Amino acid sequence: MSDCTFCKIISGEIPTEFLYQDEEMVAFRDIKPKAPVHILIVPKRHIEKLQEVSDNEKDLLGQMLLVAQKIAEREKIAESGYKVVVNCGEGAGQLVPHLHFHLLGGWK
Ligand code: 5GP
Ligand code: ZN
User: Fold this and answer.
1) 50 CB under 6 A from ligand 1?
2) Exposure winner among 44, 49, 68, 79, fewest CB in 10 A?
3) Which ligand is nearest to the CA of 30?
4) Which ligand 1 atom sits nearest the alpha carbon of residue 16?
5) Residue 78: CB within 6 Å of ligand 1?
6) H helix runs in the chain, sequence order
7) What radius of gyration do the chain's Cα atoms show?
8) Quick check: CB of 87 below 6 Å from ligand 1?
9) Which pLDDT belongs to residue 71?
10) Can you tell me the distance from the alpha carbon of 12 to that of 2, in angstroms, rounded to the nearest whole number?
11) Strand ranges inside 1-108, DSSP E
């Protein structure tokens, strides 16, 4: 998707430091953090939103959660606690129409 912000980040068109990368997904810091630690976990394939994920992509969702777990450990928020949030659709506040998980934590 040529006009998708996250596709541009994934392709390198918008330079962004990746905290994690594998064949399926990338993770990077949110540009406007809503928590002391706010990281986005994003599949490389352009899927518009959670509602568009099909049964044969269920492994991807599981892998995204396991990556959240690993990054939480690395960012030292696993013990203090964190949230994983998915906004699905504009009505829920999804501004970027490319599936992503928010990993939020680091509160005192
Ligand atoms: P949504 O509201 O769609 O669930 O979340 C999209 C998130 O992407 C927002 O928290 C927003 O701050 C973040 N974001 C939007 N554009 C960029 C960008 O160009 N770079 C980074 N790192 N984050 C972005
Ligand atoms: Zn995209």
Assistant:
1) no
2) 79
3) 1
4) 22
5) no
6) 5-11, 58-74
7) 13
8) yes
9) 98
10) 12
11) 20-21, 25-29, 37-43, 82-85, 101-105
The model's confidence at residue 34, banded by pLDDT at 50, 70 and 90, is: very high
E strands within 1-97? 20-21, 25-29, 37-43, 82-85
Residue with tokens 């928010």: 102
Q: Band of the pLDDT at 1, cuts 50, 70, 90?
A: low
CB atoms within 10 A of CB 21: 13
**How far is Cα 40 from Cα 56, in angstroms, rounded to an integer?**
23
pLDDT in tens, 62-90: 999 999 999 999 999 999 999 999 999 99
- What is the average pLDDT value for the chain, to the nearest integer? 97
Q: What is the position in ligand 1's atom list of the atom closest to the CA of 93?
A: 2
